[in-house]
C-alpha cells in the first residue's frame, strides 16, 4: 500500500533580469508517484533549441556540451537582415520547457516613392541588401545617386534621386524669303507665321522673337530674324532665317541738255517717277515724265529741251497767249514812246536781268508808241496790230504812261508797276509770290549761272 505523506518543499527561483532571490513554499502538496524527478544531469531535459535565420548561444551549468540540460540559458541572435521577434534570452525550466520563444523575421525597408519621369528596379524588392537602380525616361538625366541600398537597420542609403529635363525644346523657323520692295518705295512689308515649339516635358512654351516683327516694313538689305525658346528647366533652343528685301532699279536717267530732272522716291527704283523740266527759253519735246518698271527699264523715251519757238505772226491775242499757257510767264512793258525816260531806265535794268528772267521762265513783251506808229515785239520779232490791241484791251494797258504788268503761267494779272523797278526788287516779288517750292529749289541750284 503506497505511503502518503505531506511534504513541505522549499523552492528557489532566479529571474533572468534581476539578482533578487525569491523564496516560495507550497503547503498541503500531495506528492504523486509519477512526479518527475528533477535531474540536472540529463543532457536532453528540454528539446534542443533552434533559431531559423539566426543563432542560439547556450550556456549550461554542466558545461558547453550540454545545450539543453535543466537550467541552460540561451541567448538568441538573428542573422544580418533579420530582426528578432520574441525573447532575446530563454532558459530551460524544470517543466522541460523553455522560458520563452523567439524567431527571426526578414527585415525590409519602406517602399520607395515613384520617380517622376523615371523608374527603378530592385534586386530583392525592399528587403535588406536589396539594391535599387534608377533610370530616367528619354530626354532626362539622373540627378543624385543612381542606386540606393536597403541597409541592415531598415533604412535606405542616400537620398531619393530626381530625373532632370536635359532635352532642349524643338523649334523650326519658316524658310528664308526674298521680297521685292513695293512700287515707289524702298521698303517691303514682309509677313510670316511664327514658329511653334515642342518639348518632351512642357506642353506650353513661350517663343521669343529677336528681330523685327512680321507684318512690318523692312528696309532694303538683309535682315536676320531669330527665335528662341526656353523650357521650365531652362534648356534653350533657337532657330533663324533671313529676310532679304530687294529694290529693283533702273539705270539712272540723265537730265536733258538745257533742262533738269526731279524724281520721286530714290530716283531710279521700281515705281519711281522722274519729271523733265526745261531751263528758261526752252520747252519740252517728248514725254513729261517716265516711270521705272518692274523689268528694270524706263517706260517711254527720253525727252528733250529745245529752244522755245514763239510765233509772233499770229492774228489773235489768244493764239499768242496759248503758246505761253502753263509754259512761260509774261512781263508786258508799255511806254508812250521809245524815248520815254522811265522806259529807257527800265529797259537797261531788264537787259541786265535777262538771265534771271529766263531762269524764272519769263518772256518780255514790249508795247511802244501809239497808232499808226505803234509797235509790239518779243525781242526782235514784231507782233501784229490786232494782237497789240488785244493785249491792251484784255489787260487794260494804257498808251499814255509807262507801266509794267506781270502775268503768271495761267495768264492772270498778278502785279502792276507804274514806275521803273530794280531787278532785285522785281525778283524778290516773283520768288516770293509766283514760284512754287520746286521752282525755288531749281533756282537756287542755277542762280550762280547768272552771276
From TrEMBL:
Domain Sushi as annotated: residue spans: 56-106, 107-165, 248-307
Signal sequence, renumbered to the chain: 1-19
InterPro entries: DUF4174, HYR_dom, SRPX-like, Sushi/SCR/CCP_sf, Sushi_SCR_CCP_dom
Disulfide feature: 136-163, 278-305
Source taxon at top rank: Eukaryota
A GO CC term assigned to this protein in UniProt: cytoplasm
Keyword Disulfide bond: yes
Record CDD domains: CCP (cd00033)
Domain HYR per the UniProt entry, residue ranges: 164-247
Protein name: Sushi repeat-containing protein SRPX2
Record gene name: srpx2
Amino acid at each position: 500500500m503506497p505511503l502518503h505523506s505531506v511534504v513541505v518543499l522549499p523552492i528557489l527561483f532566479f529571474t533572468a533580469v534581476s539578482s533578487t532571490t525569491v523564496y516560495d513554499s507550497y503547503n498541503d502538496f500531495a506528492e504523486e508517484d509519477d512526479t518527475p524527478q528533477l535531474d540536472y544531469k540529463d543532457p536532453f531535459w528540454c528539446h534542443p533549441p533552434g533559431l531559423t535565420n539566426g543563432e542560439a548561444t547556450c550556456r549550461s551549468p554542466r558545461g558547453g556540451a550540454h545545450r539543453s540540460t535543466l537550467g541552460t540559458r540561451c541567448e538568441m541572435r538573428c542573422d544580418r537582415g533579420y530582426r528578432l521577434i520574441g525573447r532575446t534570452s530563454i532558459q530551460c525550466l524544470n517543466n522541460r520547457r523553455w522560458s520563452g520563444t523567439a524567431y527571426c523575421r526578414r527585415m525590409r525597408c519602406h517602399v520607395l516613392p515613384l520617380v517622376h519621369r523615371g523608374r527603378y528596379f530592385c534586386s530583392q524588392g525592399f528587403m535588406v541588401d536589396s539594391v535599387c537602380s534608377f533610370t530616367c525616361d528619354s530626354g532626362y538625366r539622373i540627378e543624385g545617386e543612381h542606386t540606393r541600398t536597403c541597409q541592415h537597420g531598415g533604412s535606405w542609403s542616400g537620398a531619393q534621386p530626381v530625373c532632370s529635363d536635359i532635352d532642349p525644346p524643338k523649334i523650326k523657323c519658316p524658310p528664308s524669303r526674298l521680297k521685292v520692295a513695293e512700287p515707289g518705295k524702298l521698303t517691303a512689308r514682309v509677313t510670316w507665321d511664327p514658329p511653334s515649339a515642342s518639348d518632351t516635358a512642357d506642353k506650353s512654351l513661350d517663343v521669343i522673337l529677336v528681330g523685327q516683327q512680321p507684318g512690318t516694313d523692312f528696309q532694303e538689305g538683309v535682315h536676320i530674324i531669330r527665335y528662341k525658346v526656353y523650357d521650365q528647366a531652362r534648356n534653350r533652343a533657337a532657330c533663324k532665317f533671313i529676310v532679304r528685301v530687294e529694290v529693283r532699279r533702273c539705270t539712272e536717267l540723265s537730265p536733258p541738255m538745257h533742262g533738269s530732272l526731279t524724281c520721286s522716291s530714290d530716283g531710279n527704283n521700281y515705281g519711281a517717277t522722274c519729271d523733265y523740266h526745261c531751263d528758261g527759253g526752252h520747252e519740252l519735246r517728248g514725254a513729261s515724265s517716265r516711270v521705272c518698271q518692274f523689268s528694270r527699264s524706263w517706260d517711254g523715251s527720253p525727252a528733250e529741251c529745245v529752244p522755245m519757238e514763239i510765233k509772233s505772226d499770229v492774228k489773235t491775242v489768244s493764239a499768242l497767249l496759248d503758246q505761253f499757257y502753263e509754259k512761260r510767264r509774261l512781263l508786258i512793258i508799255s511806254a508812250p514812246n521809245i524815248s520815254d525816260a522811265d522806259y529807257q531806265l527800265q529797259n537797261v535794268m531788264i537787259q541786265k536781268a535777262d538771265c534771271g528772267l529766263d531762269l524764272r521762265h519769263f518772256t518780255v513783251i514790249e508795247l511802244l508808241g501809239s497808232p499808226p506808229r505803234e509797235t509790239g515785239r518779243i525781242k526782235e520779232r514784231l507782233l501784229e496790230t490786232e494782237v497789240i490791241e488785244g493785249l491792251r484791251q484784255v489787260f487794260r494797258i494804257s498808251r499814255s504812261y509807262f507801266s509794267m504788268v506781270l502775268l503768271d503761267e495761267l495768264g492772270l494779272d498778278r502785279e502792276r508797276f507804274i514806275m521803273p523797278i530794280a531787278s532785285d526788287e522785281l525778283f524778290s516779288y516773283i520768288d516770293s509770290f509766283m514760284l512754287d517750292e520746286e521752282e525755288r529749289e531749281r533756282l537756287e541750284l542755277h542762280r550762280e549761272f547768272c552771276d
